[in-house]
């Protein structure tokens, strides 16, 4: 079951692999840091399976535009 966190003003980014193949997207999640949970809901609303990312994931996965825009719009 995905974790639901209230907006605390803190968030973290984590690369999330695509379920259909190579590649993925860096999404933002509520909270101070990843707590090791297997799933969570990104700021953009996407349900994501979480895992420890590789350095290559951080370098090659693009940032989710919807997460970015949502966070920029918050007070």
TrEMBL record:
Q: Where do the segments described as Disordered lie?
A: 1-26
Question: What is the name listed in the Swiss-Prot or TrEMBL entry for this protein?
Answer: Ferredoxin
Its ancestry begins with:
Bacteria, Bacillati, Actinomycetota, Actinomycetes, Pseudonocardiales
């Amino acid at each position: 079951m995905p974790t639901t966190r209230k907006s605390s003003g803190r968030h973290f980014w984590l690369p999330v692999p695509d379920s259909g193949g190579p590649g993925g997207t860096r999404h933002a999640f509520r909270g101070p840091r990843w707590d090791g949970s297997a799933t969570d809901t990104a700021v953009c609303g996407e349900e994501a399976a979480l895992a420890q990312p590789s350095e290559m994931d951080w370098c090659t996965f693009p940032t989710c535009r919807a997460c970015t825009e949502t966070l920029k719009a918050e007070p």
